[in-house]
Amino acid sequence: MSAHCQVTGRKPSFGKSVSHSHRRTNRRWNPNIQRRRYYLPSEDRYVTLSVSTKGIKTIDRDGIEAVVARLRAQGERI
User: Fold this and answer.
1) What is the pLDDT of residues 18-71, one digit of tens each?
2) Which CATH architecture has domain 13-74?
3) 7 and 13 in contact (C-beta within 8 Å)?
4) What Rg, from alpha-carbon coordinates, does the chain have?
5) Do residues 16 and 26 lie in contact, with contact meaning Cβ atoms separated by under 8 Å?
6) In this predicted structure, what is the pLDDT of residue 1?
């Protein structure tokens, strides 16, 4: 699943695009997913995560060690 944030779990959302004549067509809102490399000092290695911009802010706030520990507690492989 490419458009999926590993930290926040954000996925694309779906809806309708409404034109001026009020015709409706399907559209989707994609999260802003970035592939970022983070250094884990405790394991002395780098990990690559697919994170949204909100996930990047979460990592900046809580720290990469806490976020990786939370992901492993959820059962995700890193």
Assistant:
1) 999 999 999 999 999 999 999 999 999 999 999 999 999 999 999 999 999 999
2) Roll (2.30)
3) no
4) 17
5) yes
6) 55
Tally of CA atoms within 13 A in the half-sphere of 46 that contains its CB: 5
**What is the SS3 string spanning 18-48?**
ECCCCCEEEEEECCCEEEEEEEECCCCEEEE
* Cα–Cα distance list, 25 to 4, 12, 15, 16, 22 (Å): 24, 16, 8, 5, 10
What are the extents of the domains in the chain? 13-74
Give per-residue pLDDT as tens, 5-31: 999 999 999 999 999 999 999 999 999
| pTM recorded for the entire structure | 0.83
Q: Parallel, antiparallel, or unpaired for β 13-18 and 24-29?
A: antiparallel
